[in-house]
Amino acid sequence: MLISGEKMDYVNINNLEIFANHGVFPEENFLGQKFLVSAKMGVDIRKAGLSDDLNNTLNYGEICQYITDFMKNNTFKLIETVVERLAEKMLLNFELLKSIELTIKKPWAPIGLPLETASITIKRSWHRAFIALGSNMGDSKAYLDNGLKSLNCDKIKVLKTSEYMVTKAYGYTDQPDFLNACTMVDTLLTPHELLDRLHEIEKEAHRERIIRWGPRTLDLDIIFYDKLIFEDDELVIPHIDMENRDFVLFPMKEIAPNFRHPILNKTMTQLSEQLSDR
């Protein structure tokens, strides 16, 4: 996982030439054209530099072949789609790859005007997120277990989960105790895509939003996403008031004691100790 502010090394490929069949016009799909692919790939190569072992870095010959095969074996109308799908596939298939800046150029773009290239560049990477889980209806342990299983997919890797803890209800207190936990994940999803996925998992667990802070089969909340500070009508990161919620802080302290709140500038250990003192 690429930590914000951490120095990253790069393996670069510049203008790999590939003849493939992508484009809006039928002749582009049928006749094909030349594409130039460049990739700036974030990877920690210090171990490779010290060991002189190819297994500790990205094999750029293998990378070039992978890109070529992907470009030749698929057909898309938009190079926006090509570059998005290729970046995702590379991040999923090369374990050492942490981030990628990918550019695809069309030197023969059919626009009828003098042009060197038309191109698309995107930057994509793995992101570290922390998610809180809670349940106080039915078999709460089963709901948390199944929620974690549903979370763990190709674009979300569950890395570490706290012990489950029983806590009193927060806000609306006239309801059964909760079973709570926090989990640490790496994800390729954006914050809103991750939120949508959490809502899908809650829906699978028959979550109903009737009373604010009311009983629920499964509640999933994004607590942190990298060191992001973000707010809109649907999502607030870091999660509002998490520093006053023992059912978030104590599980967070268990799995990431030294993770620092990007606004409060205190670690999970420091925040949990503050809460305990109160």
UniProtKB/TrEMBL annotation:
One of its GO terms (molecular function) is kinase activity. The keyword ATP-binding applies. It catalyses: 6-hydroxymethyl-7,8-dihydropterin + ATP = (7,8-dihydropterin-6-yl)methyl diphosphate + AMP + H(+); 7,8-dihydroneopterin = 6-hydroxymethyl-7,8-dihydropterin + glycolaldehyde. Pathway: Cofactor biosynthesis; tetrahydrofolate biosynthesis; 2-amino-4-hydroxy-6-hydroxymethyl-7,8-dihydropteridine diphosphate from 7,8-dihydroneopterin triphosphate: step 4/4; Cofactor biosynthesis; tetrahydrofolate biosynthesis; 2-amino-4-hydroxy-6-hydroxymethyl-7,8-dihydropteridine diphosphate from 7,8-dihydroneopterin triphosphate: step 3/4. Residues 212-223 form the 7,8-dihydro-6-hydroxymethylpterin-pyrophosphokinase domain. Pfam families: FolB, HPPK. InterPro entries: Dihydroneopterin_aldolase (IPR006156), FolB_dom (IPR006157), GTP-CH-I_C/QueF (IPR043133), Hppk (IPR000550), Hppk_sf (IPR035907). GO terms for biological process: folic acid biosynthetic process; tetrahydrofolate biosynthetic process. PROSITE patterns: HPPK. Its EC number is 4.1.2.25, 2.7.6.3. Keywords: ATP-binding, Folate biosynthesis, Kinase, Lyase, Nucleotide-binding, Transferase. It comes from the Bacteria. The keyword Lyase applies. In the N-terminal section; belongs to the DHNA family. Belongs to the DHNA family. Catalyzes the conversion of 7,8-dihydroneopterin to 6-hydroxymethyl-7,8-dihydropterin. PANTHER family: 2-AMINO-4-HYDROXY-6-HYDROXYMETHYLDIHYDROPTERIDINE PYROPHOSPHOKINASE. This is Bifunctional folate synthesis protein. It comes from Acetitomaculum ruminis DSM 5522. The lineage of its organism: Bacteria, Bacillati, Bacillota, Clostridia, Lachnospirales.
